[in-house]
From TrEMBL:
This is Aspartate aminotransferase. It catalyses: L-aspartate + 2-oxoglutarate = oxaloacetate + L-glutamate. It is an enzyme of class 2 (transferase). It comes from Dryococelus australis. In eukaryotes there are cytoplasmic, mitochondrial and chloroplastic isozymes.
Length: 402
């Protein structure tokens, strides 16, 4: 008998399963609105020109080698990533109480951060928004958290944030609960709190002695502006919170498979930094020993070079603007067709995703009759919309909703 005979088949991961169904579909008009990855208006993946250029320079540089990086990664990368998040002139950086750790993309940063909070600070309860990026749950459980709770976030009737529900749930959270907050471009709803709402969230987190854990997977990609997209994190840091923030460079650099991420940690005082860093070092050492070089080197080269940095900012504006124009194009078409319901949320939502409000039955209909692939929740990746398929998509949604 096999030792593996009793292993149960795990559930499929929806987003990968639906994507595969689309890839396998031979229909010429199929539309893939599943995986969160940027596509050009031709529906193709995009290697940012500034990334290509930097890779060429790296390939030609005979001084580079394949030696191991330190356990906490490239210092030039992690400090640039932390500056990008907090703003280069933030006092927390000058005071030496904010630092970064290079991680295996945003997911790795979430894991290292969660594991530190669970092992070192003995936190055991985490909250995520309902709905949220579904992987938060698995990552936090695997990192040692034992208590999972949700705070209300989505108001389905009004297709907006259920802010009073959110505040009520946070107010009821036990002390030291870790609150996962999407820094910008909330996945999957595309709805972010206003500045005023963020201030209120911060008030409750402070009053109830909760711990803010930001997840920043879309800085710059959401609005096209790095500062705007970091507003919430900077607001908390300026108010004196200790916090951690997982940063992903998958979307804003188009470096999905290179696994480039950073965990920024902000402490009250720099005297605690060496001890904290030493414990993070042990977590990483025991998990994967040290991070890969290629993507971190690209990002650090670009962020640390003023000319390349400008070229990169142009790239993120290009991506953000294409998404914004697809949002308004889709809304206009649905309104012109007289599709029942309101569609303003398509343009008020921000980032890669839109929570359309389509029901599971409507989603099924879109997949089966129109070969338009999206998640059961009605979440669509706006990057899958192009000027070639936008009319077809609007018509498919219209006929489905009618
Ligand atoms: N958090 C959120 C909210 C995300 O949407 C994503 C990417 N889908 C991630 C974290 C992590 O992505 P990655 O590990 O590829 O950086």
């Amino acid at each position: 008998a096999s030792r593996f005979a009793d292993v149960k088949l795990g559930p499929p991961i929806e987003v990968f399963a639906v994507n595969k169904a689309c890839v396998d579909d031979p229909h010429p008009d199929k539309v893939n609105l599943t995986i969160g990855a940027y596509r050009t208006d031709e529906g193709k993946p995009w290697v940012l020109p500034v990334v290509r250029k930097t890779e060429r320079q790296m390939a030609a540089d005979e001084t580079l080698n394949h030696e191991y990086l330190p356990v906490l990664g490239l210092e030039a990368f992690s400090s640039a990533a932390t500056s990008m998040l907090l703003g280069p002139d933030h006092p927390a950086i000058a005071e030496g109480r904010a630092f970064g750790v290079q991680t295996l993309s945003g997911t790795g940063a979430l894991r290292v951060g969660a594991e530190f909070l669970s092992r070192q600070l003995k936190y055991s309860t985490f909250y995520m928004s309902n709905p949220s990026w579904e992987n938060h749950r698995l990552v936090f459980f695997n990192a040692g958290f034992t208590e999972f709770r949700e705070y209300r976030y989505w108001d389905a009737a009004n297709r907006t944030i259920d802010f009073s529900g959110l505040i009520e749930d946070l107010k009821a959270a036990p002390e030291n609960s870790v609150i996962i907050l999407h820094a910008c471009a909330h996945n999957p709803t595309g709805c972010d709190p206003t500045h005023e709402q963020w201030e209120k969230i911060a008030d409750v987190i402070k009053e109830k002695k909760l711990f803010p854990f930001f997840d920043s997977a879309y800085q710059g990609f959401a609005s096209g502006d790095l500062d705007k997209d970091a507003w919430a994190v900077r607001c908390f840091v300026s108010r004196g919170f200790e916090l951690v923030c997982a940063q992903s460079f998958a979307k804003n650099f188009g470096l999905y498979n290179e696994r480039v991420g950073n965990l920024t940690m902000v402490l009250k005082d720099k005297q605690f930094v060496p001890q904290v860093k030493s414990q993070v070092t042990l977590i990483v050492r025991g998990m994967y020993s040290n991070p890969p070089n290629h993507g971190g080197r690209i990002v650090s080269t670009v962020l640390n070079n003023p000319q390349l940095f400008e070229e990169w900012k142009e790239c993120i504006r290009t991506m953000a603007n294409r998404i914004l124009s697809m949002r308004s194009g889709l809304k206009q078409r649905l309104q012109a067709l007289g599709t029942p319901g309101t569609w303003d949320h398509i343009t008020t939502q921000i980032g890669m995703f839109s929570y359309t409000g389509l029901t599971p039955r409507q989603v099924e209909h879109l997949v089966n009759h129109y070969h338009v692939y999206l998640l059961k929740s009605g979440r669509i990746n706006m990057c899958g919309v192009t000027s070639h398929n936008i009319d077809y998509l609007a018509k498919a949604i219209h006929e489905t909703v009618l």
